[in-house]
Amino acid sequence: xxxxxxxxxxxxxxxxxxxxxxxxxxxxxxxxxxxxxxxxxxxxxxxxxxxxxxxxxxxxxxxxxxxxxxxxxxxxxxxxxxxxxxxxxxxxxxxxxxxxxxxxxxxxxxxxxxxxxxxxxxxxxxxxxxxxxxxxxxxxxxxxxxxxxxxxxxxxxxxxxxxxxxxxxxxxxxxxxxxxxxxxxxxxxxxxxxxxxxxxxxxxxxxxxxxxxxxxxxxxxxxxxxxxxxxxxxxxxxxxxxxxxxxxxxxxxxxxxxxxxxxxxxxxxxxxxxxxxxxxxxxxxxxxxxxxxxxxxxxxxxxxxxxxxxxxxxxxxxxxxxxxxxxxxxxxxxxxxxxxxxxxxxxxxxxxxxxxxxxxxxxxxxxxxxxxxxxxxxxxxxxxxxxxxxxxxxxxxxxxxxxxxxxxxxxxxxxxxxxxxxxxxxxxxxxxxxxxxxxxxxxxxxxxxxxxxxxxx
Length: 457
What we know:
By secondary structure, the protein is α+β, with helices and mostly antiparallel strands. Helix content is 25%, strand content 12%. The protein has two domains: 45-84 and 232-457, paralog of FGE (formylglycine-generating enzyme) (Alpha-Beta Complex), CATH 3.90.1580; 96-200, no CATH class. A four-stranded antiparallel sheet has the order 1-4-12-7. Strands 10-9-8-11 form a four-stranded mixed sheet. A two-stranded antiparallel sheet has the order 2-3. Helix 2 (85-110) crosses helix 4 (173-181). The protein starts with a helix and ends with a helix. It comes from Yeosuana aromativorans.
């Protein structure tokens, strides 16, 4: 009897599995939505391929940290320019505004005001009214919201109302109280101006340490989730601290925030801040993707590996000294090819005293600007002079959390020509900021069919 029941149940399950299906019982796979790669805004596709990484000729400086080695990298997108002041300000302003909105919502909750009350109530948490929630949103709100140190984790901010920055238009005393906490104290103000307390501009994010998880499979998921909180405002004092006995106050005062420098590369950013920017850029793009019904999420923006950076800087040229290909820093018309220090003490010989706009000089063959000079660039690599001897030959990458010396590439406006060479390596500490170091980001190309060889066919 039991055997008959089992046979009947098996037949029934088979019939149910085949009903309503158009696969005719064949193995057709699970088909998702049709997908096409989307070129990220402001980026260029760098086709994957092999190249000779390191010094192609004699190491005249005698550093011996970049022996020639053939490696292969996968295809990726890279920013065509260094991240500019304007682009980084978008990050800073987003962090500032998010903190303000959170403070406004918390105070509105504490005083019991809602959107119907006006004033600060307009900035109350969106979930203060549960009537318009979906079933899932209501379930998450009732079971998970507030599980954290502040009790406000998971609450939804109201982004439908614009923040008010003109003090004459503050809606009530509660709003003024919150804005007051975001500025420096009155006793630290001068010339009738109160400035933002930029030390409060902190970006919090969580990421998974994939390397750690892969190397120790006994760890639980929670053990490889890393939480970071980073102050995002660039250190403008680097313009003064990096050059003793030098008058650089105008750059300190104006370079980051003034519109005159919007299209210039951001500097004064640490390696950790550059990493945080990548996390925010991914979050920001995917927040938009979620608002588009059916849109796929994008993969992460990140700093390039050292191999990716050098491969992109070469622009497809093998054994080149500079991104433009030859051994000379001047064109056949006598014009400098990059922004650097060509003559001892003469920073203006190349017609640029400090940095220049991010889209200056001619791009290389991958349409990337200033891969040599202007500002040095952080990459996602720890500096080890012997790393080329042991890193993999496919997508080589070395980033040791215990080694805080992080690689910078490309040379800058204050460097001599040697550091502009595509193979030259330098480093700075991860928590250090300099007025000559910036960065650009990359994003993996989804798929492997785009290679340099295929592109040339």
